[in-house]
Amino acid sequence: MNTIAPVELPKAYRLLNHGPTVLVSARHAGVSNVMAAAWACALDFMPPKLTVVLDKATRTRALVENSGVFVIQVPTAAQAQLTHRVGNRSLAEAPDKLAEAGVELFDMPGHDLPFVAGCSAWLACRLIPEPHNQQTYDLFIAEVVGAWADTRAFSNGHWQFEQADPALRSLHYVAGGQFYLTGESCVVKVD
Amino acid sequence: MNTIAPVELPKAYRLLNHGPTVLVSARHAGVSNVMAAAWACALDFMPPKLTVVLDKATRTRALVENSGVFVIQVPTAAQAQLTHRVGNRSLAEAPDKLAEAGVELFDMPGHDLPFVAGCSAWLACRLIPEPHNQQTYDLFIAEVVGAWADTRAFSNGHWQFEQADPALRSLHYVAGGQFYLTGESCVVKVD
């Protein structure tokens, strides 16, 4: 059963607002790659924008620079090992990196981009070229042009972690192979 | 008992790596303010840098622009209501905002900055002026020049949420007064 549904763009920021570690994927000239990034962040509500830090050593960065488009996706607790693997191996040294990490890619109609299967949310991004930021800080700014979520994890504009399978929770990377999972919900009185 | 200890700068990024919602505080000409920000992110390891989005409507932004320094601190689960309050009221409209939100400020020797008591970590930041980013994207870049943590929550270069009082966990804001707390630890095999 396909549980992927579009997320309206004004609510796309909510897919990143809780600060998850993400997967960045891109494709150029027939080469696809996926990397992990703990340093991705929402930047604006509407049109939605985001920032992501892409080190000069990564192949994914070159694909982004050449294609001008990429996907930011939110991996799940079930993908912790996959996330760590794609974050620690380079396509340059391990041509079979994606298969070895267990990454399965799929297409989303209308977007020539590699989407990673099994994630909880996907943001199709168009690079806003800012050469100074990219060169000086490895900082990339993009506009979100499409958003989708697995409705078991995110629906009605909100994450549903309280009711969802814990395997769908997001990952928050620290260091040395350690993540924290997204935890309990805490709702404060709005006064 | 004072449980605040310095964090060595090469590990300062770990205070933000899990993507918590933060409090931004700043002081200029005798006026101090504190706001909440879900859009703060590590940018570099060493020297540590970070990004934070500061809307033009906020008083804190003007204080940062005038003083060139600010504090990013990580509030705890126990401070959820405080965090939501300082994020939703402006000093311009509520001169007693900080007292009403229950904010207590303290000084750190050698830094002329307002630190918020009760947080789990503090990053003293020096603005790296980037007028284009600030004007176009509300995006501020800073170097972290000092870092401290409550040793009950972060010690030996790692968060200690597994052993710590749950009230010390970090907050991850979504929308409408809802946060997720930092959850379980998940350690993958590093292969």
Structural notes for this entry:
Two copies of one chain form a homodimer. By secondary structure, chain A is α+β, with helices and mostly antiparallel strands. The first copy, chain A, has one domain: Pnp Oxidase, Chain A. Chain A contains four helices and 14 strands. In chain A, the strands form four sheets. In chain A, strands 1, 2, 3, 4, 5, 6, 9 and 10 form an eight-stranded antiparallel β-sheet that branches. In chain A, a hairpin with a 2-residue loop joins strand 2 and strand 3. The interface between A and B is large, with 55 and 55 residues. Strand 14 of chain A pairs antiparallel with strand 14 of chain B, so a sheet runs across the interface.
What amount of the residues of chain A lies in strands?
35-45%
Helix coverage percent of residues of chain A?
A: 10-25%
Instruction: Evaluate the radius of gyration of chain A.
Output: 16 Å
Biggest sheet record of chain A: 8 strands, antiparallel
Describe the global form of chain A: globular
Oligomer state equals homodimer
Name the CATH superfamily assignment of chain A.
Electron Transport, Fmn-binding Protein, Chain A
What features would you highlight for this structure?
16% helix, two-stranded antiparallel sheet, 14 strands, 43% strand, alpha+beta, Pnp Oxidase, Chain A, homodimer, eight-stranded antiparallel β-sheet, 191 residues
Summarize this entry quickly.
The first copy, chain A, is of the alpha+beta class and 191 residues long. Chain A is 16% helix and 43% strand.
